Each structure stands twice: as C-alpha cells, then as structure tokens.
Amino acid sequence: VQKIAEIEAVKQVGAKNVYVALRPVMIRDALGVDKAAPVMIVDMGEDNFSISVVQGGKVLINRVLNFAGNNMRKSVVDFARANYGIVIGEAQAEMIKNKLASAMPEADAAAGDKIIGMTVDKTRAEFLVTMRDLYAALKDYYFRLSKEILEVFKLLDRNMAALLKNQAVYLVGGSSNVRYLPDFLSINTGANVMQVRDIKSL
C-alpha cells in the first residue's frame, strides 16, 4: 500500500512511467557480485527480516519473516525487566543489543556492560550484563533465522541450493551486526554465510 502511494505521488508531479526497483535486486547490485549468478540475501532490517534469492533482474524467492530487529529490541527490554526488575527504554535496549548481542557468547564469555534503569518502584538501579546473559534472551531469533534459511534452500532445486551454499549467503541490515552471527548460521545451515557491513543504506 505504501509503495502504491509513493508511485501515485511521483505520477502526480508529472512522471509518465514509473519503474520500481525491487529491494533485493538493489542490494545484490550494491554487493557488486555477478548479476547472472543466483544470490541469497538475508536482509535483517528494523521492521522486516527477509530472505531473497535473486538472479539477473528477477527475485526468484522473497520470504518475509514474522520477526525483525524491533522484536529483538523488545526482547532486550523484557529481559531487563524479567531478570533484573528494571525498566529500560527502547533506545537503551538498542544500544545494549548492538554492544552485547552475540550468537556465540562462549567466545566472549567475560565481555559485559552495565545496564541502568529504574525499578518498578522508581528506584535507580544498575547491573552487569554479559553476552552470555543476553544470548539467553535472543538465541531463539538466531535459531529461527537458521531454520528459515534452511526452508528457503528446500524450495530450490538441488543444484542451485548447492551453488548458493558454496558461494555465499549475504547478511545485510542493522541487526546483522550481531557478533559471530555468520559463524552461527554457517554451522546451523551448512552455508558459507558472509556479513556485509559496508553496503550503502537502501
């Protein structure tokens, strides 16, 4: 609906023909990979996670998931309240997620940071939270994402699935910055998963 409204707004200012570039194709182009070869892109945005397979100018598969970065942030808020009895805002939850979220906390078991908030009786409180602590709050998302990637592989013919697993599965978007997420997904899917940090915002 939003995209249709945008198209109509452009037409109203005089454009006769409006062409919509599909986001997965735009991401593939920004990656600079071979356009003729199939590419799998896991787009981990704020409001949507999606898994796409792109080849040429076509999106062969676009699977939109029912969880995203905002769900992960809310889980951090719920984690602070349930485990420490404190209330934190979404901005602080996002900072904690960006700093401490790790898909393999055993690699950073000692890493931690203070979490500061207000208790339910409005008393200021702070606690030390480790990556292992936060992993307990977010691990379901990592496993669910692994499962969804495997489901997409099942939709492809065997040769294309093998090709995509061997060449690369590209992670993009803000929530893809979870530490060791490519390693975790590689172990759980059998694919060569690569995190792309320097792609331009689309």
- What structural category characterises the helix and strand content? alpha/beta
- What order do the helices and strands follow? HHEEEHEHEEHHEHE
As a whole number of angstroms, the C-alpha radius of gyration is: 20 Å
How much strand content do the residues show?
A: 15-25%
Distance between the termini: 19 Å
Report on this model:
- The protein has 7 helices and 8 strands.
- The protein is α/β, with parallel strands linked by helices and 202 residues long.
- The strands form 2 sheets. Strands 3-2-1-7-8 form a 5-stranded mixed sheet, sandwiched between helices. The chain has a 3-stranded antiparallel sheet with strand order 4-5-6.
- Helix 7 (181-189) links the parallel strand 7 (169-172) and strand 8.
Short description:
The protein is an alpha/beta fold.
Supply the key terms.
disordered N terminus, 7 helices, 202 residues, three-stranded antiparallel sheet, alpha/beta
